Fold this sequence. Notes:
Elements lengths: L1 H39 L16 E6 L7 H11 L5 E7 L4 H13 L3 E5 L8 H19 L5 E4 L10 H8 L5 E3 L2 E3 L7 H24 L10 E4 H10 L12 H11 L4 E3 L4 E2 L2 E2 L2 E3 L5 H23 L5 H11 L1 H28 L10 H29 L1 H4 L2 H29 L15 H4 L6 H7 L5 H11 L5 H7 L5 H12 L13 H4 L4 H7 L1 E7 L2 E6 L6 H5 L8 E5 L2 H9 L2
Helix pairs in contact: 1-6, 1-12, 2-3, 2-19, 6-12, 6-14, 8-9, 9-14, 11-14
Amino acid sequence: MYLLFLSLWPWVLGTLATVLLLSGLDDLVPSLICFWHLVVRKTSVTAAGVPRHERRIAVFVPCWKESGVIANMVRHNLASVQYGNYDFFLGVYPNDAATVQVARQLAATFGNVHVAACPHAGPTSKADCLNWVYQRMLLHEQEHGAYFDTVVLHDAEDLIHPEALSVINRERVRNAMVQVPVLPLPTGLDEFTHGIYCDDFAEYQTIDMRARQLCRSFVPSNGVGTGFARHVLEQLAKDRNNLVFDPSSLTEDYEIGVYIYHAGYSQVFAPLTWSANGLIATREYFPRRVRSAIRQRTRWVTGIGLQSWARDGWRGSWLCKYWFWRDRKGLAANPLSLLTNMLFAAGLADWIQAAVEHRPWFFGVANPAVVALCWMTAAMQCVRLAMRMFYTGRIFGFVFALGVPLRQFHGNFINCCASLGALWRYADARWHRRPLVWLKTDHAYPNVGALAPMGRELSEVLVGGGYVSEQALRDAQTELRSDAFLAQFLMARGMVSDEEMCRAISMQSGIPFTRVQVERIRPRIVRTLPLHVEKRFGVVPFYVESGRLFVAGARVPPVSFYEELKSFTRLPIEFHLVTKGNYEELRRLL
């Protein structure tokens, strides 16, 4: 056996090194394309002209078991988005009562939020839910004599950039599909699984998507932050028997991008740009547990690598075929990468042991060609890691980028499991002639700390909401000389009532405003938290529902509030803003 290994190992190592070298060179191609257009051809993706008006935009948000996040998502984005002519359509299922209730409350509170109920029980697929949201939009148009020129897709955990809809409106001047960049929210170095998404998206959104655009190849939809021209969706409805989004597809967003490209419509990826509100991109939390990450990536690999291959084949120009190859190569490259990591770990351990015992290295080879291939492959991997660290550091900071090499090993394990799982699920479905089942990803909405940088100024909300006139606010700011105590100043002068100020702060922060009926509060719920919590944070519990503890306060709590309260209760906390008078009524119950 030992002699057989010695005879076969150089061939195995040489073959593996050659494949990895070619794969590494292939991974450099998108960067070389961007470099060529930037330095040699001096071309770039230019922005469209200034639109003459704000197109009416419908934002589709499919929901299944999203009662814990959808309210914060809608409230925050309504408060932060700097665009006037848009409506939310929330797709819900009749057997998801909690989400239906929250969606109806939002629709009752905000005039541009509408509930789009699916006629059947869920969950089905994201595409199926989107189809019924589309029908609800048509019904809304008939009832109100409206017309939505553009449809934008988002998920229930998305943090929409304040200028994202304006970018889509601008690019719609000459494009039928607009993709706004998508980036994970930053997390700490200890968040290894989520960090993989930070690394992947930093490189993909910076280089790969831009390279596709420069090559005039198809631009896949990222599933969120994608704007579609209405006439494109109407054409899809005609071609697919009124099914705009393919309900049997696991990655309907990817496939609709391919369809739009082959149909001859223009597409654009809005490159990453900085604004006063940071990078213009849709932000969200991606899976932070290994099992959830494998589950999500299994769906991606199954839909993009296998299902799309079976449906679309290799149609298009040679550049289009190349990007198909880039999207599908992970089926083989992911398991191969994990195998390489395992061999590297085993070889390193044996090399150390051989040095200690003064014996020959078990994995050593004498063939100079194989040795040269190994060194070239190692150099290529170093170059790729350095580039990945640069792209990650540019967006998430260079301290965070130091973790890229370690996260690469972790990512290879997750991607390998996802590829093998995708092959198994696809083969099993084909063998038993069963449809592929949609694997839903658990969603988490950002905390107050992540939301704060994108919020509007209180003065802007007060004027926009009609609480004070622009001239009156200017006079008040001149007299006050600082916005620090603007709320107290306006209320003391009687320019804004306590309730009006609460509603304005609610719109600014995305935190719900409520009026607690004290006579209906149970005293034992008020005493759920220790008394010193009320003194420190100014909050009082008032309700428990669906496993959540509702607390009320007259001011927005600090970011640390939610984490610190975990030591006093296992229930998730939902904070509601109340007037000072209503809060004093609650305090008396203590």
